[in-house]
Amino acid sequence: MRRVVTFDRVAAAGYLNGELIVHRYRLIRLVFVVSLIAIGASAQAQTPSKKRPTVRPAHSLVIPGDSSRAASAGVSARIRSLLDTATTTLDRLEVHQTSLAPGGSPHPPHRHIHDEMMLVERGTLEVTQEGVVRHAGPGSLIFQSSNELHGLKNVGADSAVYWVIAIYPRDLADSSRRRR
């Protein structure tokens, strides 16, 4: 049985005519702040490892928003990869933006060993997590825990755009291919 969970977005502060006004630079800053928080939490939860990353860890950097490359995931999805690297505390940190056409899904529901966070920039996504259906609009943060079945679908009339931050702690098997 599927449950549908909705939120009264109109009543939330910052909404105008039912839509959140999202400033691009604030959104990008929020994505990276959330990434840094996740990296810190991951580092605290880790036990020291003798395993070295196969890629030299990235140091502090700034990646211009227009420097990414696009790779199509399918007919209804377009992916812009911004970052895919090892860090001092992670075997892999991957950040990309996905644009979904109306009715589109990036892939069938799946599960993987790493954690993911998704930040919705625009549009309305139907999020299925372990059989529970929720809706996420602009400004929503979706957290996907390790090994839980999940999937996304654009249920809006226009394209949906969201950012994905995939976090691979040390000694965790990489269950997906790198987008290089």
What does this structure look like?
By secondary structure, the protein is mostly beta strands. The chain is built from 1 helix and 12 strands; from the N terminus they run E-E-E-H-E-E-E-E-E-E-E-E-E. It has one helix at residues 24-45, and strands spanning 3-5, 15-16, 19-20, 69-72, 77-85, 90-100, 115-122, 125-129, 132-136, 141-144, 150-154, 160-169. The strands form 3 sheets. It has a 6-stranded antiparallel sheet with strand order 4-5-6-12-7-10, covered by helices on one side. It has a 4-stranded mixed sheet with strand order 1-9-8-11, with no helix packed on it. The chain has a two-stranded antiparallel sheet with strand order 2-3.
Secondary structural class: mainly beta
Question: What is the averaged pLDDT score?
Answer: 76
Largest sheet: 6 strands, antiparallel
Helix content: 10-25%
Strand order of the largest sheet: 4-5-6-12-7-10
Tally of helical segments: 1
Query: What general form does the structure show?
Result: globular
Write down how many β-strands occur, each being a DSSP E stretch of 2 or more residues.
12
- CA-atom Rg in angstroms: 17 Å
Distance between the termini: 39 Å
SSE order: EEEHEEEEEEEEE
Strand proportion, as a percent range, falls in 35-45%
Uncertain runs with pLDDT below 50, 5 residues or more?
1-25, 45-50
